[in-house]
Amino acid sequence: MAEHRHDKRVDCDQTCILRLGDLHHVATVENFSLGGALVHFHSSPPALHVGDNCIISMDGGSLLEYSCEVIRVETTKIALMFADTHKYKSVVQRVRNTIKAGFPNGFPSI
What we know:
By secondary structure, the protein is mainly β.
């Protein structure tokens, strides 16, 4: 199958919190790019559908929360697209720095 991604993906294994309204779900960011992230749940993901909006908080909450749209739902994973990426310069800059530095396993811990 041909690769259709526009941005390079960076693998990581970072805990995140996915917020859907008043519900919070702990998950793991498996990889991310400038455009979005692939999130893994240890059991089935919460009832999500393509087009749903949610908030993701990465890095233990020391970064801002990022608005996302669900673009794919799998058995234990969901693909998210960052909404309004221009508002979230910190995550974009961190992704660029990570890619430039060539960290094979994502960000170093802060």
